[in-house]
Amino acid sequence: SKKCLYIDDPAGVQLYGGWGWAVLFGAFISIGFSYAFPKALAIFFKEIQDFFGTSYSEVAWVSSIMLAATYGGGPISSILVNRFGSRPVVIFGGLLCGIGMVSASFCTSIMQLYICVGLMSGFGLALNLQPSVIIIGKYFLKRRPIANGLAMAGSPVMLCTLAPLNQFLFDNFGWRGSFLILGAILLNCCVAGALFRPIGHATGPIQKEANKEVKETAKAYLDCSLFKHRGFLIYLVGNVLMFLGFFAPIVFLAPYAKHMGIDEYSAAFLLSILAIVDMIARPTTGLIANSKWVRPKIQYFFSFSIAFNGACHLLCPLASDYAGLVIYSVFFGLAFGMVCAMLFETLMDLVGAVRFTSAVGLVTIAECCTILLGPPVGGALIDTFGDYKYMFIKCGAVMVLAGTFLFIMNYYNYRMLAKEEKAVGTKDPEHGKPMNEGSNNWDSEKMQDGQELEPLTDEQGLKKEVNGLTEV
C-alpha cells in the first residue's frame, strides 16, 4: 500500500498526496495571479491613457506601483503568516485584491488608480504570494522541487489566459466594466486560500514559541550582517540593476504592437506566446541548472541568462512587422523563464539555507526601488522621443550591463572562495566552508522525509516536537 505521513490532527492531514495536492492547486492559483496579473493589465494601458489624457510615463506607474507593492509586501506577508497562518492571510489578500479592482472601476483620475490598483491590489497580491510559497514547503518535503515547479507554472498559465481575456472584456465592457469583472475573478484567491488547511496545533509552550518566532522573523529581515557578505552584495547590486529593465518590456509589449498598427487581439496574443515559452523554459532551465556540469558554477549561467534577456530587447527595434514581434516574444519568453527559474536558487547558493530567509527579505526591499522606477522611466523615454525603440534599447543595455557585472564579479568571488578554501584546508572539520558559499554538495536521493518533518509540523512553522506523529 502507498506510504503516507500523518500528523496528530483531527483532520488527518496527509502529506505527499491527498490534501497536499489540493493545497498545491490553491498555490497554483495564488502564485499565478500574483505574478501574471500586473503584467496582463498592460492590455488596458493605451485606452486608459487616452481616457485620462495622461502620458506613457504616468500610466506606467499603475503597473510599477502594483509590482513594487507585491514584491515589497513580501516581508510583511511572511511575518503575518508566522503569526496567523497561511489560510487567513491569503483569504484577506484575495479580498483586498477584489476590493481594489472593484474600486478602480469607479476611479475618476489616474491618481486614484495608483491607490486602488497599485497599492490595494498590489499588497493583496503580496499576501497571496508569500503564504503560497511557504505552505508548499510544509506539505511537500522530498517532492518539494516538483511541487514548487508545478505551483510556479501558474504564472505563465495565468498570463497566457489573462491577456486574451482582458482584451475580450475590454471590447465588450470597456475598461471600467473589465476592472469590475476582474475584481470578482480575483476573489477566487479567497477560494485558493481556503484550501490551505493548517497542519497540527499550537498550544501551551508551543504557542509561546510561535510568538517568539514572530519576533525573530521580523528581526531576520533586518539582519544587516549580510551586507558584509561578499557574494550577497554582488547578487544584490546586480539584481537591483537588472530590475530597472526587467518588467518594462512586458508592460509595453502589447501597446507597442498596437502602436505599429497591429489589431488588439494579435497584440494581446504576443503576451500569450511569451507566457507559453516561459512555461516551457522554467522547468527546462531548472533541469540544466541542476546538472553536475552547471550547478557548481550556477552563477555564470544566471549571469548569461540576464545578458541574453538584455540582448533580446536590444534586437527588438529591428522587428518591423508582426512576425518579427512573434520571434521577439519567443526569445523574450525563453530569456525571461531562464532568469525567473534561477532567481532564488542562485541566492541560496551564495548565502546558504540558514540565511536565505533574511537574504530574500533584504533583496526584495532593495529591488522595490528599481521595480517601481523601471516602467515609468521607459514611459518617459517614449513620451520624450515618441518612439518605443529607445525604451527597449534602455532596458536591453541595462540588463546586458547587469549580466556583465555579475559575470565578472562572480568570477572574482569564485577565485576568492577557492583561495579561502585552500587556506582553511580540508583537515580541520571545525571550520567547514567559507561563509560566502552555499552548499553545492547535495544528493536528493539521500534526503530523509522523516527527519525533515519536524520543522514543518505546524502551520506556523514551529521547530518543536509534536506528539503523535505516526507513519501508516
TrEMBL record:
Region spans: Disordered: 425-472
Transmembrane stretches, start-end: 18-37, 89-106, 112-134, 146-165, 177-196, 232-253, 265-288, 300-320, 326-344, 356-378, 390-412
Gene3D superfamilies: MFS general substrate transporter like domains
Protein origin, superkingdom: Eukaryota
One Pfam assignment: MFS_1
GO-annotated molecular function: monocarboxylic acid transmembrane transporter activity; symporter activity
Catalytic activity: 4-methyl-2-oxopentanoate(out) + H(+)(out) = 4-methyl-2-oxopentanoate(in) + H(+)(in); 3-methyl-2-oxobutanoate(out) + H(+)(out) = 3-methyl-2-oxobutanoate(in) + H(+)(in)
Intracellular or extracellular location(s): Basolateral cell membrane
Record key words, sorted: Cell membrane, Membrane, Symport, Transmembrane, Transmembrane helix, Transport
Ranges of biased composition (kind: Basic and acidic residues): 425-434
Domain Major facilitator superfamily (MFS) profile: 20-414
Membrane topology qualifier: Multi-pass membrane protein
This protein's GO CC annotations: basolateral plasma membrane
Family: Belongs to the major facilitator superfamily. Monocarboxylate porter (TC 2.A.1.13) family.
Protein name: Monocarboxylate transporter 2-like
